[in-house]
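Example for tutorial group B:
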């Protein structure tokens, strides 16, 4: 029986950073953020629905969705965020389950689903165990501002659109404290996989 891990955290807590580390253990990762970009490409059903709902003004010149513009709309307005979620999430969920099951059918002993909104969207039934990547709020805000060049206000709007990472840590089966170096977080991941008897071959 494959073990399915749900990896989550809050925005910029370090999910993608930890997610990349699973590669060293030959553990496949299904990334919900990546899928949410695929399902809104021009020509996809969700793309048409987004344009219908939010108007042509959220498009770039090349007709792709201007993600910064759409982000500024939905992180400022909960009802618009819910509308966008209602369009994008069903398509992401469907793809996520197909990929998860594909990896399991091809013999993976462990599969990771990297889902930022795992708890908010009540998707814990998709996974066997949950892992939260935790950082203190000051670290989170700073890393978010540095990575995406957001103002403090923009950073907090995004952070406040989710359950706090502290609360998520309380809901998790395991927590990786990512306040320290990436190497320190890597060691915590190694220990966790050992504890849960995930014996995928570690590459040299
Ligand atoms: C608003 C959009 C266009 C902004 O795109 P952008 O490239 O700037 O950000 P990106 O998609 O990389 O998301 C960055 C992070 O923002 C957070 N986030 C994204 N969408 C949401 C949301 N609807 N609610 C709360 N947090 C969110 C997540 O932590 C995510 O990891 C995009 O995030 C989007 O389409 N969101 C709706 C789909 C969604 O919920 N995706 C996240 C999980 S599937
Ligand atoms: N331990 C660490 N030390 C220093 N910087 C880090 C550490 N972990 C992550 N970062 C940096 O913090 C930023 C956020 O990390 P990352 O992109 O992995 O977060 P995320 O949770 O995947 O974000 P999002 O929710 O937006 O997808 C990145 O610029 C990353 O390089």
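The residue assignment follows.
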């Amino acid at each position: 029986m494959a073990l399915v891990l749900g990896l989550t955290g809050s925005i910029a807590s370090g999910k993608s950073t930890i997610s990349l580390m699973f590669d060293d253990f030959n553990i496949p990762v299904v990334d919900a953020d990546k899928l949410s970009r695929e399902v809104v490409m021009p020509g996809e059903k969700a793309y048409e629905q987004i344009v219908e709902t939010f108007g042509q003004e959220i498009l770039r010149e090349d007709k792709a969705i201007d993600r910064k513009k759409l982000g500024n709309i939905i992180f400022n307005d909960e009802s618009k965020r819910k509308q966008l979620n209602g369009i994008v999430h069903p398509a992401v969920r469907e793809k996520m389950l197909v990929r998860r099951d594909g990896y399991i059918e091809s013999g993976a002993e462990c599969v990771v689903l990297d889902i930022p909104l795992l708890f908010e969207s009540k998707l814990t039934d998709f996974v066997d165990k949950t892992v939260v990547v935790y950082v203190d709020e000051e670290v989170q805000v700073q890393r978010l501002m540095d990575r995406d060049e957001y103002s403090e206000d923009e950073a907090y709007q995004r952070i406040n659109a989710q359950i706090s990472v502290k609360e998520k840590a309380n809901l998790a089966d395991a927590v990786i404290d990512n306040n320290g170096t990436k190497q320190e977080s890597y060691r915590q991941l190694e220990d966790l996989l050992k504890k849960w008897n995930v014996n995928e071959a570690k590459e040299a």
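The chain has a mean pLDDT of 96. Compare this with the pattern of hydrophobic and polar residues in the output above.
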